[in-house]
Amino acid sequence: MANRLGVIGIIWLVITVMVALFADFFAPYTVDYVHEEALRAPPQRVHIFRDGRLVRPFVYGYKSERDARTFLTTYTEDPELVYPIYFFVKAEPYKLWGLISSSTRLFGVEEGGMVALFGTGRLGRDVFSRVLTATRISLSVPIIGMLISVILGSTIGVASGYWGGVADILIQRLTEVLMSFPRIPLWMALAATLPPELSSLHRYLGVTIVLALIGWAGLCRQIRGKTLALKESDFIMAGRAAGSSTPTILFRHLIPNCFSHIVVVATLSIPGLILAESSLSFLGIGITPPLVSWGTLLKDAQSVQVLTKHPWLLAPGVFMVLTVLAVNFLGDALRDALDPYSEIR
């Protein structure tokens, strides 16, 4: 069962990473494209039958009505407005990865129509396109933060365990200080210190560094413990006797023997970093426009009134939960596969 969940997790993560890499191609609109005639409109259903016949996939346009008492606008399907869906269409130009100019998108409708599979937000922007584009930030920040944490934690941990003495004592006291603070409040405090005048890109880098600088302490202590157990092993003693330098022993002998543990810890740390970035962005102290992440998109769904009337605005949260579960499934499967004492294979 664990392996099946791991496979499911891998499949979802592969799909999510592909979406993140090619979000501009998969999204029918840019993140800032506005449908002025459809503000907070519900998701459109894709139809393949019309008048009892199988036809090209299409969506109906919206018909809006304003409540004279509450002044709220409601949207329903208008059978008179039919927008066929075409694949590999020419639409708004974009630069894939900021390098390759293109205007081809996976699907879309003719000019004058609209397709909003996840509905639209309060400004009339397509939720589906924004969720796909936000995937890049919501995945890249945790992954980069995890890599920085792993490099710091592994390097400092193996050095602490190998050298011992005063250096080991000082490093372990530092890790204890970092681990004594609750992570979320500490992340919030550090993120709040970022100057508000920072550009979106600089703030992206700042949030990534903030998340990374707190997460390395736990891995450092674990790698130190493994190093203490390994440094008196025969192969380490043989390396010393052969005249191997300290960096060679640390990075060619000790760290590779901890690699399976590092992989599992790194994988299982990503869900927490995803939630941390989303939380900071949701609170307004993380990613800022024009960049979008799942957390910034969820800011449109803060009130109960909005959720009850426009539940499709929770779509970023659904993607976030599924991704967190997928990474956890993968991490558990890796732990079982790499654990020599596990009976699960």
TrEMBL record:
The organism's place on the tree of life at top rank: Bacteria
Xref: SUPFAM superfamilies: MetI-like
ABC transmembrane type-1 domain boundaries: 135-331
Membrane topology according to the record: Multi-pass membrane protein
Location(s) in or outside the cell: Cell membrane; Membrane
Keywords linked to the UniProt accession: Membrane, Transmembrane, Transmembrane helix, Transport
Predominant subcellular localization, coarse grouping: membrane
Any single Gene Ontology cellular-component annotation: plasma membrane
Alphabetical list of InterPro entries matching this protein: MetI-like, MetI-like_sf, OppC_N
Pfam families in the cross-refs: BPD_transp_1, OppC_N
Transmembrane in keyword set: yes
Biological process (GO), any one: transmembrane transport
Transmembrane regions listed in the UniProt entry: 7-27, 143-165, 201-219, 254-274, 310-331
Alphabetical list of PANTHER family matching this protein: OLIGOPEPTIDE ABC TRANSPORTER, PERMEASE PROTEIN, OPPC IN A BINDING PROTEIN-DEPENDENT TRANSPORT SYSTEM
Family: Belongs to the binding-protein-dependent transport system permease family.
Protein name as annotated: ABC transporter permease
The species this protein was found in: Caldilineaceae bacterium SB0675_bin_29
Lineage summary: Bacteria, Bacillati, Chloroflexota, Caldilineae, Caldilineales
